[in-house]
Automatic annotation (TrEMBL):
Protein name, per record: Carboxylic ester hydrolase
SUPFAM superfamilies referenced in this protein's UniProt entry, alphabetically: alpha/beta-Hydrolases
Species this chain originates from: Carlito syrichta (Philippine tarsier)
InterPro entries for the chain: AB_hydrolase_fold (IPR029058), CarbesteraseB (IPR002018), Carboxylesterase_B_AS (IPR019826), Carboxylesterase_B_CS (IPR019819), Neuroligin/BSAL (IPR051093)
Organism phylogeny: Eukaryota, Metazoa, Chordata, Craniata, Vertebrata
GO CC entries: extracellular region
EC number assigned by the record: 3.1.1.-
GO molecular function: acetylesterase activity; sterol ester esterase activity; triacylglycerol lipase activity
Length: 610
């Protein structure tokens, strides 16, 4: 036998041994499921992938999810299922299916034996509580939320799933007839299914981390606060959204329920009759009865999205600010992108994205007044003065446009995230708290050079796209992705982003209300990336000065609905929310100080993530 033949034979023998570790058919509470085993190289590492496992029975419109009855034989879990029914981007048709509550699992495998006791990371997608799917957008047969890179690089199990969105997921009459939060209950069902079944896939049911972005990040936050998840969740990561964000809780769900009912011909004078009618209405008609205007809006876009979570007295039993004791033992990371507000600023003020268009002082003042309605003229003038104080006599257009973006970033993301961190820290028992600022600039070629990290820019790095599709990325992008996967998966494993399976570029210090520590994530993460007291001046303003302004009551607190389509009318605010603690502002006080009234004012429903 020649030398070449011996080498080939040796490799073949090694390959046979190395490729032996795989799960095969797995027994779950519903029956056997069989996925696929994907080889990752000559060394024998692989990943078991299961797509389309039902975690609940096919849904009934505007009803809570129920356990799946199970199946006979072995379920072939080899392809993604359809997303939950939702409107297309043009909002003139629907896609997806009512039968949509399925999940997907990625399990990394070594060469000799199947994995055991792996940490579990469950992803909750964003999309304004209006759109999205567990597999995400498809780019050249590489889905955005494909869990392979996280699973194999971090040696964790990754789970993604679908949940109901739009009217089918969040329509509520504000009473027991249609309590709402069906999408949140879908999420809970998926988490509970993983808790009961993941050991069969090699996961540790006592080490579950939930993570998500935008509406998914807010969902993560809400799930940690809900009493329904007691004992299910060990850790959580919120990327650009928290339960306290001004766009998360709908204060007047009946306003929006009536508009959908009117569109589909259901009665609106009695919620019991309305609910009975809506439940037998074609789900596609319900979905299309609501349209989100994205151009020509009289008010900021936040006033136009009506179908988001509600305080139902059960799943969300109280204002989220009062529920943080429920997360006292859950380790938590929450952070933002440094220009999270950019995409929303371009919708509210299209001149932001056009070099040949100017932003005027009047444009900015109108935007500010639209987001400070319940504080009236004093609130608008106060906020406008704070954000324009650094302008020169003739500020450049770049300065003005960046100010608009900073304003929306602060009010929609940064300030509520800092308040949530302070609340988590104030209530924590054994739990640890960390925060970050993602500042790796957007790769969108149509954006001006001054644009930083836009909303949802972080997702591609967390899911390892620079490695999965390397031709579309630079070496510096892979550096960012490697670091984020390491921090995220270490945190899932140990509760400390610095300790676990992967080396990290620098030590990430925990957050406290005294130090305000945060990690700035860029292409060069080193010792100087640890910083303190993010945007202290503006946090002081929103949590102290703005809070102290008197709240406007009566007609002045509610914008007049635009004429035309009924779905375009903004939601009238329904009063002050519960007081929230003030995040660290550079002083030495250890405990957050509760303000005396509502900090964010107008009802600001959810924003669009990807």
């Amino acid at each position: 036998m020649g030398r070449l033949e011996l080498v080939v034979l040796s490799l073949a023998c090694c390959w046979a041994v190395a490729s032996s570790a795989k799960l095969g058919a797995v027994y779950t509470e519903g029956g056997f499921v069989e996925g696929v085993n994907k080889k990752l190289g000559l060394l024998g590492d692989s990943v078991d992938i299961f797509k389309g496992i039902p975690f609940a029975a096919p849904t009934k419109a505007l009803e809570n999810p129920q356990r799946h009855p199970g199946w006979q034989g072995t379920l072939k879990a080899k392809s993604f299922k359809k997303r939950c029914l939702q409107a297309t981007i043009t909002q003139d048709n629907t896609y997806g299916d009512e039968d949509c509550l399925y999940l997907n699992i990625w399990v990394p495998q070594g060469r000799k034996q199947v994995s055991r006791d792996l940490p579990v990371m469950i992803w909750i997608y964003g999309g304004a509580f209006l759109m999205g799917a567990g597999h995400g957008a498809n780019f050249g047969n590489n889905y955005l939320y494909d869990g392979q890179e996280i699973a194999t690089r971090g040696n964790v199990i990754v789970v993604t799933f679908n949940y109901r969105v739009g009217p089918l997921g969040f329509l509520s009459t504000g009473d027991a007839n249609l309590p709402g939060n069906y999408g949140l209950r879908d999420q809970h069902m998926a988490i509970a299914w993983v808790k009961r079944n993941i050991v069969a896939f090699g996961g540790d049911p006592n080490n579950i981390t939930i993570f998500g972005e935008s509406a998914g990040a807010a969902s993560v936050s809400l799930q940690t606060l809900s009493p329904y998840n007691k004992g299910l969740i060990r850790r959580a990561i919120s990327q650009s959204g928290v339960a306290l964000s001004p766009w998360v809780i709908q204060k007047n769900p009946l306003f929006w329920a009536k508009r959908v009912a009117e569109k589909v011909g259901c009665p609106v004078d009695d919620t019991a009759r309305m609910a009975k009618c809506l439940k037998v209405t074609d789900p596609r008609a319900l979905t299309l009865a609501y349209k989100m205007p994205l151009a020509g809006m009289e008010y900021p876009m936040l006033h136009y999205l009506g179908f988001v979570p509600v305080i139902d007295g059960d799943f969300i039993p109280d204002d989220p600010v009062n529920l943080y004791a429920n997360a006292a033992d859950i380790d938590y990371i929450a952070g933002t992108n440094n220009m999270d507000g950019h995409i929303f600023a371009t919708i509210d003020m299209p001149a932001i994205k056009k070099d040949n268009k100017e932003v005027t002082d009047e444009d900015f003042y109108k935007l500010v007044s639209g987001l400070t309605i319940t504080k009236g003229l004093r609130g608008a003038k106060s906020a406008f003065d704070v954000y324009t104080a650094s302008w020169a006599q003739n500020p450049t257009q770049e300065t003005k446009k960046k100010t608009v973006v900073d304003f929306e970033t602060d009010i929609l993301f940064l300030v509520p995230t800092e308040i949530a961190l302070a609340q988590h820290r104030a209530n924590a028992k054994s739990a640890k708290t960390y925060t970050y600022l993602f500042a790796h600039p957007s790769r969108m070629p149509v954006y001006p050079k001054w644009v930083g990290a836009d909303h949802a820019d972080d997702i591609q790095y967390v899911f390892g796209k620079p490695f999965a599709t390397p031709l579309g990325y630079r070496p510096q992008d892979r550096t960012v992705s490697k670091a984020m996967i390491a921090y995220w998966t270490n945190f899932a494993r140990t509760g400390d982003p610095n300790m676990g399976h992967s080396a990290v570029p620098t030590h990430w210090e925990p957050y406290t209300t005294e130090n305000g520590n945060y990690l700035e994530i860029t292409k060069k993460i080193n010792g100087s990336s640890m910083k303190q007291q993010l945007r202290t001046h503006y946090l002081r303003y929103w949590t102290l000065t703005y809070q102290a302004l008197p709240t406007v009551t009566g007609d002045g607190a509610t914008p007049e609905p635009p004429m035309g389509d009924s779905e375009a009318a903004p939601v009238p605010p329904t009063g002050d929310s519960e007081a929230a603690p003030v995040p660290p502002t550079g002083d030495s006080e250890a405990d957050p100080v509760p303000p005396t009234d509502d900090s964010e004012g107008a009802q600001m429903p959810t924003v669009i993530g990807f």
